[in-house]
């Protein structure tokens, strides 16, 4: 990617925010998550689903609902979506919401103005962050 030549690259590190195994359930995996409606007390709801992969030996399909205390964010300028293939996404501007999707993607926000929220998705992805960018990793096995 031309924008990377001659640049000092700082690799983003994953940080486990929540260990869903601490809930005391026998979870196999989480298949999906979505932000639900804002609750009457002002907190944001988060809905998480885990299925049994059609395996009777694993727990049944489960739905979890959480209430999140989230600091207000600035208005999102643009939503950017990748494809099912490998993508090279070079961001510009600020406050973008990026969903890279499947494939081994390269998401470069280093030249953007910052405050982007980046969901890399599945695949062996490379994310290059800029000022105040936040990687939003999918819920999957953590090292």
Automatic annotation (TrEMBL):
What is the protein's given name? Phytase-like domain-containing protein
In terms of superkingdom, the source organism counts as: Bacteria
Q: Which organism is it from?
A: Moorena bouillonii PNG
* InterPro entries xrefs: Hemolysn_Ca-bd (IPR001343), Phytase-like_dom (IPR027372), Serralysin-like_metalloprot_C (IPR011049)
Q: Which GO terms describe its molecular function?
A: calcium ion binding
Domain (Phytase-like) ranges: 2-54
